[in-house]
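Q&A log
Question type: sequence-to-structure
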Amino acid sequence: MKYLNQSWRLLTGGVVVLALLACNKPGASSEASSAPASQPTPAVAEQSPTKSPEDLMARTKAEDAMKLVSEGKAVIVDVRGSEPYKASHIKGALDFPLSKMESGDFKGLPNDKQIISYCT
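Response status: OK
Response body:
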């Protein structure tokens, strides 16, 4: 039982990281650029591409997710919040706001299934 609890915590921790990275891309800004549109963008020295933590997270194709859910091996979790969930969501998805995950509250999520989260 102790091993199961540790595995579940690692899995849900990974889900939280995935959701955080997917919903809050680092370096993203909602503010418009202050440079006029007619100004050319300064050239930037070419750098070797670096992978963001988001690039390292496992991805699940829609077909694979549907199969896992139909086999009872996974659940889909909508982390956008209650209002967007009420407006539209994947059929069968659980409404589990990201804020709950961020606070460490995983009550209501199954501990015996793969968690597949989405935020868009």
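Response note: The chain has one domain: 2-24+56-118.
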